[in-house]
TrEMBL record:
InterPro entries: Homeodomain-like_sf (IPR009057), HTH-type_TetR-like_transc_reg (IPR050109), HTH_TetR (IPR001647), Tet_transcr_reg_TetR-rel_C_sf (IPR036271)
DNA-binding region(s), chain positions: 47-66
Keyword DNA-binding on entry: yes
Keywords, sorted A to Z: DNA-binding
Name assigned to this protein: TetR/AcrR family transcriptional regulator
Length: 200
């Protein structure tokens, strides 16, 4: 999940442990830089030396904030959960409208992403138990939210979760590249998914 579309207009190291000396050296600076590297090259691209070079500081600065690379990766996953799920849900709810409106807007939001982050995290989860568990929880959270919207919009309670799961899997399928489509076609397909989810 990404930014919400507004449908109203459409190990510890022995390196020196110097204290940070500017606001950009706080832990969030490392996490932001790691996130950018992850988005471009996946989890294997997130390495301490390249990150320090990217930030223009020494490697030792990293260990002021993080015990090791694994701790940074945990923080990166936390950022993904917050930015790509919780914030999306909050913004979608803040956008208002009926449950049907909110569900359509959410589906449109999904349709306008390029999928790099989503597929990167899922590839990571294929070989990392911690990442896999976080992805599982995120999937459950997203599907439950979509099912709640579908129920509120009129879908039978007995079918809402299954419909949400089908729509969610269809959205993820857009990123596999098996059947490439344009953004416009994805939005049109999401409209069809919306109709399927809210029909009585």
């Amino acid at each position: 999940m990404g930014e919400v579309v507004d449908d109203r207009s459409f190990n510890v190291n022995t390196y020196c442990m110097e204290a940070p000396n500017s606001s950009r050296l706080d832990p969030n600076a490392w996490v932001r830089a790691a996130y950018e590297m992850f988005e471009e090259g996946g989890v294997s691209a997130v390495r301490i030396d390249p990150l320090a070079k990217k930030l223009g500081i020494t490697r030792g600065s990293f260990y002021w904030h993080f015990e090791n690379r694994a701790a940074l990766l945990r923080a990166l996953l936390d950022r993904w959960v917050e930015g790509e799920t919780e914030r999306v849900i909050e913004e979608n709810e803040r956008g208002g409208g009926t449950a049907s409106d909110r569900l359509r807007r959410l589906l449109w939001t999904c349709a306008t992403e390029d999928g790099r982050l989503e597929m990167g995290v899922r590839e990571w989860a294929g070989g990392d138990e911690n990442a896999r568990e976080i992805v599982r929880r995120v999937d459950d959270r997203r599907i439950a939210y979509m099912a709640d919207l579908a129920r509120e919009a009129g879908a039978p309670n007995s079918d809402a979760k299954a419909r949400a799961r089908i729509a969610y899997v269809a959205w993820l399928g857009f990123y596999t590249g098996i059947a490439p489509t344009t953004t416009e076609q994805r939005i049109a397909d999401m409209d069809q998914l919306h109709c399927m989810m809210v029909s009585s």
